[in-house]
Amino acid sequence: PKGVINDWRKFKLESEDRDSLSLSKKEILRQMSSPHRSFSKDDKDTRQRFCRKMSMQEYELIHDEQEDESCLQKYRKRCMQDMHQRLSFGPKYGYVCELQNGEQFLEAIEKERKTTTVIVHIYEDGIKGCDALNNSLTCLAAEYSTVKFCKIKASNTGAGDRFSNEVLPTLLVYKGGELLSNFISISEQFNEEFFAVDVESFLNEYGLLPERELPALGNGNGNMDEQDVE
């Protein structure tokens, strides 16, 4: 696509060492990054000569293996960073929030952004499956930091009669203040021993989790090399 090609040309221009280029190459790169430069009618012959010359040197500049491989890697990283930024708008959490009472429960749902998924685990200590689900949600909260994971004891909700031990653990999923899903006795959906990956697969079956976040870009150690994306 022309837009991608022009973006690549502009990036290459910005990445070139200006001091190491000849004046002719600088001019060619400038023209490459501004492909819609207009010429006067009296400059038709110059334009034709320049276009022929530019196409040859442009090819050499764009397809030089050693220089372009490094530049292309930087360009890819920048594109991935830009895409990651666009997809990762909104608040980040990364942990399971403990709600203390019914008021906090309502606030966690009603005062959140309409685009944010809120997953609430209603539990009680000593109930089978509750501890395993809490541990699983802690792992998922780190993986899906744009999802707001919460937990609250049934006895603290102010509606303990609705959440008897027989329906625990219960998982409620909200978005935009609306209840999307209500899973009572959710541990019955899994084996006696279950883990985060099991809960993740279950939620994904219902389309309740977003796409996994992109991993950190950079070198093999997971650290971003700032010089690579300048």
UniProtKB/TrEMBL annotation:
This is Phosducin. The keyword Nucleotide-binding does not apply. Residues 25-45 are annotated as: Disordered. The lineage of its organism: Eukaryota, Metazoa, Chordata, Craniata, Vertebrata. Its main location: other. Residues 1-221 form the Phosducin domain. GO terms for biological process: regulation of G protein-coupled receptor signaling pathway; visual perception. It comes from Haliaeetus albicilla. GO terms for cellular component: cytosol; nucleus; photoreceptor inner segment; photoreceptor outer segment.
